[in-house]
Structures are given as C-alpha cells and as structure tokens.
Design a protein that fits this description.
By secondary structure, the protein is an alpha+beta fold. It folds into five domains: 2-120, no CATH class; 155-266, PAS domain (Beta-Lactamase); 279-373, Beta-Lactamase (2-Layer Sandwich); 378-465, Orthogonal Bundle (Helix Hairpins); 472-620, Heat Shock Protein 90. It contains 19 helices and 17 strands. It has helices at residues 2-8, 24-54, 61-83, 90-120, 124-153, 179-183, 187-190, 195-198, 203-219, 263-278, 299-304, 308-311, 325-329, 375-430, 436-465, 476-493, 513-532, 567-570, 588-598, and strands at 158-164, 170-175, 223-230, 236-247, 253-261, 282-287, 292-296, 338-343, 349-361, 364-373, 472-474, 496-502, 509-511, 540-548, 553-560, 602-608, 612-620. The strands form four sheets. A five-stranded antiparallel sheet has the order 2-1-5-4-3, sandwiched between helices. It has a five-stranded antiparallel sheet with strand order 7-6-10-9-8. It has a five-stranded mixed sheet with strand order 12-14-15-17-16. Helix 2 packs antiparallel against helix 3 (61-83), helix 14 (375-430) packs antiparallel against helix 15 and helix 16 packs parallel to helix 17.
Length: 625
C-alpha cells in the first residue's frame, strides 16, 4: 500500500474533505451526487452498445462506440471525485481528466464532421412518407403484375422476362402462369434461378439453345428458336420462342418475349413433309421478290439431279431457262398446265409439265410450281407419231397401189391401141403419097382410144369419191376442235401460235365426220409444213375460222403466214400427184378436194407469195331438227 501511495504521490497531499471542512451534509451531498452521476454515466454506454448490436443497419456505429467510451471516462472522473474526498488521488484524477479531455475533443471533432451528413439523412416523417410511397408503388406494381398475369393467361404459351447475369447465372424475373403448362413448373420456382428450365430441354437441342441465347446476348439481336423439351415421363414437346434483348446497367441482359407450344404444328408439318416428299411431282417454292428457291421436295432430285438442300437459296433460273420467265412473271390460273423445258444438273434438257400457284404470307409473295417429268410420255408420243406416220404412209402406198393396178389394167388396152394407131399414122406420113383419107380414119380411132382412157380415169376418180360413207349430223366447230387437238403436239413442237375465230350457234352439217376431220387435219398439216420454212425471227401464226355464208353454207378457213405459193404452183396445187414437198406424193389436196365435193361443197385457196396461204372449203348447212 505504501508503494501505491508513493506511486500516486498522495503522501504530501490532503484529502478533498478538508476543503469541505468535513461537513457531513456537504460531504455526502458531493459524494452521493458523484456516485449517482457515475452510475448514470456507466449505464448509458451499455444502452448504446445494446442498441448498436440490435440495429446492425445503424449509420456510423463506430461513433456510438466512441461516444460510449467518452461517457465512461466522464463517469469515472466523477467516481474519482467522490474518492478524493477521503483519498487524495489527484494525480490519477488529473490523468483521467486529461484522457477524458482527449477523447471528448476527438468525439466533438468527429461530430462536427458527421453532423452535416447526418442532417442529410431523411427524418422520421420523411421516412414514413417514403415508406408510404413505396407501399403505394409496390401495390401499384403488384396490381400491374396481376393485370399482366390475367392478360398473359389468355395468351397461348407463356410471356416472360429472362435475365442472364454477368456471372453466367440466369433467372425469370417474370413468367406468366403459362409456364406451368409449358415447363411444368411455377413462376416462383424460377424467379431466382432458371436452371430448372434447362434441365428439361432435350439433350440433342440444349447446345443449340444455349448458343442461340449467347449470340442474341452478344449481338443484342432478337432471339428466335424452335427446340424440344423432354420430361421425365418421356413426353417430348416442341416449343417456339421469340424475345427481344436489352442490356442493363450492371451488364446483365434482359429478354422480353414469349414461348408457345408448337407440337401440333410440327406433327402436321411432319405429315405434310411425308406427303410432300412422297410426291412423284417436283414441288418448288420460290420467293417472288428475288426468284430464289425457298424449298423443294425429294422428287426434284429425280427430275433435275439436285438435292433439295442444294437448291435452297439458289435462283429458279438454275432449273428453268430465262426464256420461260414470262410464265413465272405472269402466273397462270391455278391448275393450268404449261409445257416447258427444264435444265438438268448435267446440262441436259428435261421436258416438263408445269403448273403454278401464287400466294402471300405476311405481305411476302411466293409461288409454288409443280413440275412433272414427261420425258417418257414425250418419247412414247413420238414413237406413236412415227408409228401413225408409217401406217399412214403404208395406207397411202396401198391406196396408190390399188389405184395404179386398176388404172394399169383398165387403161392398158386403149393405150396399146393408141400406140398402134400412132405407129400406123407415122408410117402413112412417111409414104411418098400419103393416103390422107386413111390417115384421117386412123387419127379418129386414135382419138377414140384416148377418150376411152380418159373415161376410165374419170370412173376411177368417181369410184374414189363415191364409196360408201357414214353421214351423220355434226357441229362443224366440234370437228374443228377435234382435228386441231390431234395436231396440237406438232403445233407446239414448231412454236406455232394457234388461234380460233369460230362463229357460235352455227347450224349443223350432215357429213362423214371422219372424212371431214381428215380434210381439216390435212390442211392444218400443210400449213405446219409451210411454216417450218419461215425465218427463225418470224412469228409463226395459224388461225382457223368458221362462219355462215349468205347462201346458207358453212365456210371453214385455215390460214397461215408462211411463204405462200408461187403462181406456177398455184395452177397445179390441186392436181393429183403434184407436190411441193421433197417426200410428198401429191395426193393429199386432190383427195381432200374430192371428199369435199362428195359432200356437195368445194375446196379453194388464196395465196400471196411471202405473205401466207388460206385454204377454205364449204359445206351445205342442215336445218336443226
């Protein structure tokens, strides 16, 4: 104890009670006041520390702790004031006061620095107002979300917001109730973590979905993707998603979009694709804006040699030559078939039947063309045509043989007599004194035999035109159409434009329909032969007309714009055995004329060299029964 007294230097000091004259009342007034102040000061720091521990969000907690230390120091000075009444610890009291002064100065200085900042904090009233405003805003936001949920619930699929954070995590801040049907989860389950969604994406599609999202986030381009999801029960569904991204301040990317179930559509598309690819016709869809191919079915490979994926994005000119573009620019009515030539991958020409249908989707215009390879049919038609020509040629040879045999047999005798009489006449002329009377008699007999030969030929012609026929009532326009239909392949083959000008409601005719059709066919083929020799740059035209004449006859005119018939040929054109063709026999027009005459009509023609020829014939009209 003596050592402590020596350390504190109280040996030479007197207690403070001497200053108070040891007055009991005065002494206990000081002591009790200092003790009470000390207790009060000591209780305040505990309250401050408790408050700070309970309110961890309080601003400047270190200032509260510093203030608590300052109060403890102040309370301790009052405790020493009570002690110094009996024990003169003035040095300890002075040191503690010095420490209290330092800590009070620091506290005061920090208070001067913090007060302006503290004043900027909202008051309790302001906090209440702000809280009320936030409650109103939250209530309005919740009402808006409720309205959005109600609207979104009426939309097929789900409406959503998808956020991808800079650290790679993701969430759905908003998802409509449709997510329960789409992904079999609730909006709450994915509001913080979207990983559950990715667990149901089909394993074969997961990488493509992730890559498409990353690309959309990187380029800030709309996300649009079709993919599959697969649930634990094995059920697989097709989904279609579409969303627009935006970059947020923290670097995250937020998409606004929708996802809908397209399983039914994909099933229908699969069925259509199976039909589409099973078709033997080539089906090609083209974008009219650039004539690029959008899609093609499997049959296209058989027809053109290209795989469907090779044609996607290519021009239609790869398959159809540019000279046929007028067929594409002026789309024909649906169902009408055009005959064109297509281009095979190997460069060969493919004859095609083509029909076109035009349509629009979302203001984009397309046409779909259906093509059929008719190479086999064309080959068969050509074989049939050659076979018919051969049969016709054989028939004509047979007819000519019969006619020649008949003529040779009947005309042989008068021609022999004419030869004999002619030789006798020559001998008489060579005599020194010709017997003119006898010569005249022989020449008269020669004339008789020549006339006899002419009568024989006339009888043969009468025989040809008077053979048994099957007459019936017919419509001349029908006969014209039937005959023209048999020649349509030759007309197209030689790029001839055929036109009709047929008068309607014509009276019927009583004819052998086969013979009249044969006459029309013969005249059409003559025009086709004439047009073959036209210049390449000249348009080839063939027209067929029918009309009722003033004398109640029906006139049929077949006109071409070929090279025409020169004057010398015009004099002989209807004569038997005269022909302008290198391989012709010269019987067609003669027989046609005979057939028309047998029907009480006539066959004539008009021709101007270089301008074309018109053949026309008439038939008597019959009253309608």
């Amino acid at each position: 104890m003596q050592a402590l007294i020596d350390l504190l230097g109280i040996k030479d000091l007197i207690p403070h009670g001497y200053c108070l004259s040891w007055s009991p009342v005065l002494l206990w007034l000081h002591v009790s006041s200092d003790i009470l102040i000390t207790l009060a000061y000591y209780s305040i720091p505990f309250t401050i520390i408790y408050f700070i521990r309970q309110r961890k969000d309080i601003q400047y907690p270190w200032l509260g702790l510093l203030f608590a230390g300052f109060i403890i120091a102040c309370g301790t000075t009052h405790l020493l004031s009570a002690i110094t009444i009996w024990i003169p610890l003035y040095w300890l009291d002075g040191l503690l006061k010095a420490f209290t002064a330092i800590i009070s100065l620091v506290t005061a200085a920090l208070m001067l620095w913090i007060v302006p900042q503290a004043l900027s904090l909202p008051t309790a009233k302001q906090l209440h107002v702000e809280i009320d405003q936030r409650k109103i805003a939250q209530q309005a936001q919740q009402e808006a979300l409720d309205r959005l949920q109600k609207i979104a619930s009426r939309v097929p699929g789900m409406v959503y917001q998808y956020r991808m954070h800079p650290d790679g995590s993701s969430s759905f801040p908003f998802a409509s109730e449709g997510i329960r049907d789409i992904y079999r989860t609730s909006p709450e389950e994915v509001s913080k973590d979207a990983s559950k969604i990715f667990t149901v994406i089909h394993p074969d599609d997961l990488s493509d979905v992730s890559a498409s999202i990353q690309k959309s986030a990187q380029d800030l381009t709309p996300w649009c993707h079709e993919y599959r999801i697969k649930f634990n029960d094995g059920n697989v569904r097709w989904l279609f998603g579409n969303a627009v991204p935006e970059r947020e301040a923290d670097g995250a990317t937020l998409w606004h979009g929708f996802i809908t179930d397209v399983t039914e559509r994909k099933l229908i598309e699969a069925k259509l694709d199976s039909i589409f690819n099973a078709s033997v016709e080539g089906i090609i869809t083209v974008d009219i804006s650039n004539n690029h191919i959008i899609s093609a079915n499997a049959a296209v490979e058989t027809i053109f040699g290209y795989k469907p994926e090779e044609l996607a994005g290519c021009g239609i000119s790869n398959l159809i030559p540019s000279e046929h573009f007028n067929l594409l620019d002026t789309v024909q009515p649906s169902g009408q078939i055009q005959e064109i030539d297509g281009l095979h991958k190997n460069g060969s020409v493919v004859p095609l039947d083509m029909s076109i249908a035009e349509y629009s989707i979302d203001n984009a215009h397309y046409f779909t063309t259906i093509v059929r390879d008719v190479s086999l049919r064309k080959h068969r038609e050509q074989q049939d045509k050659e076979h018919l020509n051969q049969l016709a040629h054989v028939t004509r040879l047979g007819l000519m043989g019969e006619m020649a045999s008949g003529i040779a047999h009947e005309v042989n005798q008068p021609l022999t007599a004419v030869t004999t009489y002619t030789q006798v006449s020559l001998n008489l002329i060579k005599a020194e004194k010709p017997d003119l009377e006898k010569l005249s008699e022989i020449l008269h007999k020669t004339q008789e035999q020549a006339l006899r030969a002419g009568r024989i030929i006339h009888r043969m012609r009468e025989f040809v035109k008077s053979h048994t026929t099957l007459h019936s009532i017919a419509d001349i326009n029908t006969l014209i159409n039937n005959a023209a239909g048999l020649c349509v392949d030759e007309i197209k083959e030689h790029n001839i434009t055929l036109s009709f000008k047929l008068e309607e409601h014509l009276p019927p005719v009583n004819v052998d329909q086969v013979q009249i059709e044969q006459v029309i066919i013969n005249l059409i083929r003559n025009s086709i032969d004439a047009l073959q020799n036209s210049p390449a740059n000249q348009e080839r035209r063939l027209s067929i007309q029918s009309e009722l004449t003033s004398n109640n006859s029906i006139q049929v005119r077949i006109k071409d714009n070929g090279q025409g018939i020169n004057e010398e040929q015009q004099e002989k054109i209807l004569m038997p055995f005269f022909t302008t063709k290198s391989e012709g026999m010269g019987m067609g027009l003669s027989i046609s004329s005979s057939l028309i005459e047998a029907h009480e009509g006539y066959l004539h023609f008009n021709s101007q060299p270089g301008k074309g020829t018109t053949f026309y014939f008439t038939l008597p009209a019959r009253d309608k029964q």
